[in-house]
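User: Can you write out an input/output pair for a complex, sequences first and structure second?

Assistant: Here is one pair. Inputs:
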Amino acid sequence: MRRYARRYAHLVTMQTPGPITPAYSPQAAERLASMADVTASDAALRRFLHGLPGVDAVGLEGRAATLGTRSIKTTAKAYAIDLAISMIDLTTLEGADTPGKVRALCAKGVNPDPTDRTTPKVAAICVYPDMVETAKDALAGSGIHVASVATAFPAGRAALPVKLADTADAVAAGADEIDMVIDRGAFLSGRYMRVFEEIKAVKAACARPDGSAAHLKVIFENGELSTYDNIRRASWLAMLAGADFIKTSTGKVAVNATPPNTLLMLEAVRDFRAATGVQVGVKPAGGIRTTKDAIKYLVMVNETLGEEWLTPDWFRFGASSLLNDLLMQRQKLSTGRYSGPDYVTVD
Amino acid sequence: MSDARLSVFKTYKLFVGGKFPRSESGRVYEVADSKGNWLANAPLASRKDARDAVVAARKAFGGWAGATAYNRGQILYRIAEMLEGRREQFVREVAEAEGLSKSKAAAVVDAAIDRWVWYAGWTDKIGQIAGAANPVAGPYFNLSTTEPTGVVAVLAPQDSSFLGLVSVLAPVIATGNTAVVVTSEKSPLPALSLGEVLATSDLPGGVVNVLSGKAAEIGPHLAAHSDVNAIDLTGADAELATALETAAADNLKRVLRPRDEDWSADPGTDRLLTFLETKTVWHPIGV
């Protein structure tokens, strides 16, 4: 971070960030306003994003691979499994989603393993905007959040007013969290300001009449950004625009969350907090199917960001089949017998 | 130039999910012939290999059980053809493993191949002897048909490394089950070579998984595994068999207890029928 500070002293007033504040707090908005000079114009923003140091791809992949070799066993594994379950955004994003399926998923989220009531509940249920109301009803009183994708998910190819209406609808229906997609076309063609303004507009659309706001997760679709440098730029861009969470992918393309690109985002979040004092969450999504994978991610979070991020408030898994594998491993730990897919619900 | 060639030793490996992995534990053990001379190192499978094998077997089950009986028969017959092509190798391995003369070993291998062909013929016939059109007092067709039990763990016989192995394995897969086989501990090499035959015989990966190692080490995990539907205890001694049967009771596995077997005798349909379930459907007669 000091390196950025030296290079961008003329762009950013880099003082000690002061107390840490969550991205969704009003103080965070003030901190971001203090960064206004880098986001003042398209040119300034481009200069800042392109001035971020390039990513050492070999080093990044090596680091991610090394962190994936930790052996987590017995009580630590039990802790990791329960933590991972409590961090899941249990997701169903299919054209064929029915109210019945959403209700079934909500019931599973509240009580993932009916044979063992000590199993923690998941963090949120993630659905399309038109299913928010159904999910909200089904989850009433459970404390589980409803996350809704919005902004013409997953392609994001729609006019801004449509995206904002999509978001406002989901918030009005009761969504606690909004997962938006960035306009990859604009990002890849270098129109960073357009992406920035869009995220700000969606953030504004997340506000509720009572003054509170739905939390905003910004999806980059890493598989479409093609380079690690782009992922680092997208991370800073989204955080500067006020994202509460940054999320790897939609789960709808071939390459979803991978350990290296998630590690890169974790590092961006760490650096962003060091620079601004604003804490942002991370959500890898898509392709995380096994307990082993999930534990690798938790190790990465702990090693890169530390324990503060090891809570559902700051780290989430976007997944559907992961939960069943976690439950089977949990059953193995508690009974000593290997479990099978007959002993978990099929959603 | 010298006439002496460097020896090319074969690395025996497990057969899991259609691939040939080493043991997850990295362990091997020495396999000796009947006179105690070292033959090769075989992988010593661990409980995690067993777990992976069950996952592979479960994954393969839908496709294998759903294949037509005719198709399964063709594939089993193909396996017999491949065995015939590798006859020399199996004769040598069986002779070394069991201390038989070459002619006796050849007879054992021939019997094993013949048995495989025999079971291949049963795939589309077993339904006719085990199923039925039941007479009922009402305007219904009442049909009982056979269905495979699921994933079957097989502890292969300890003494008969090839004929015994074929005699316990072929009936399990002929009816559409998938199998996790724990080989004879003392002489696993013919079984591991059988894996190579299976891999080249159109048999979908995961239908048969071969683990070499100690039945007493892997058996308890397979017997207690909730995703295993049946266990054949042929290769377990009396004490182990009792313990495994107890563990297997937890999820109501089908259990085949060990008994005295003469592997050269006509096997009958007993083993085919052990790992079958009966499904009965009532269908209104359209009148």
